[in-house]
Specification:
Blueprint (H helix, E strand, L loop, with lengths): L8 E9 L2 H6 L3 H14 L2 E10 L12 H13 L3 E3 L9 H9 L4 E3 L7 H31 L9 H26 L7 H10 L12 H10 L1
Parallel strand pairs: 1-2, 1-3, 3-4
Helix pairs in contact: 4-5, 5-6, 7-8
Length: about 220
């Protein structure tokens, strides 16, 4: 009997956290693995290698400081398979860096925008880069405001740390909202239908859960 089943697709998984502290604690890693695993299960993809990076993604020359990404690219070329990441920002928020990866002709799949073509990945990267700059400006402004109020800045100061955390959370929410707006289907007239179509594209909430009418409306209203 001839086996009519097509061979299972293969891929390389790439995970990144931005600090040594996150790397030691595992913060974010399990969430990334879970997102990748659910995507691969839904699309019958076998992960044949995993590469974990603990490094910052800033700068167009970041690849020189990302040996695990270099290794992932080499492995992907060898078996002619794509690299899968949980979210686009796990590669970088830098447009030039993303453009360089696209020019390398190794396909990437981002689980938050799985159907995005290279052109759309450039747009999403541009949105992320803009939000990164806005985050930096808002964080500086928040720290300056706290300092003007007489708050002593530094790690021991809980108020300043909370202010920075709040601004970073707002920036992530803004980046997520911008991504949703860029992918928002124009043919739908209700949040329920839009959430269904966005979920079908693999676009989720910040925590990786499926979008619904309420979460979509909240994100679009709050930015």
């Amino acid at each position: 009997m001839t086996d009519t089943h097509a061979p299972q697709a293969r891929a390389i998984a790439y995970l990144r956290v931005s600090t040594q502290k996150q790397g030691r604690s595992g913060l974010g890693l399990e969430a990334q693995r879970d997102i990748i695993a659910r995507h691969c299960q839904a699309h019958s993809i076998a992960i044949v290698g995993e590469y974990l990076e603990v490094e910052t993604g800033k700068g167009a020359d970041a690849l020189d400081r990302r040996p695990q990404l270099k290794a992932a690219l080499t492995a992907a070329r060898k078996i002619k398979a794509p690299i899968i990441v949980a979210k686009l920002d796990r590669l970088s928020r830098d447009v030039a860096f993303i453009a360089g990866l696209m020019a390398d002709r190794v396909p990437f799949t981002c689980c938050d925008v799985p159907d995005a073509e290279p052109f759309m990945l450039h747009i999403y990267a541009a949105i992320a880069e803009q939000e990164r700059r806005a985050t930096s400006e808002r964080t500086k402004a928040a720290l300056a405001a706290k300092k003007a109020q007489g708050v002593r800045l530094g790690n021991p100061n809980l108020a300043a740390a909370r202010a920075v955390h709040l601004e970073q959370a707002r920036a992530r929410a803004g980046e997520h909202a911008a991504m949703i707006r860029a992918a928002m289907p124009t043919e739908t007239t209700t949040h329920t239908a839009a959430a269904r179509l966005l979920t079908a594209q693999g676009i989720t909430t910040i925590t990786g859960r499926p979008l619904n009418r309420r979460t979509l409306a909240h994100r679009l209203k709050g930015g």
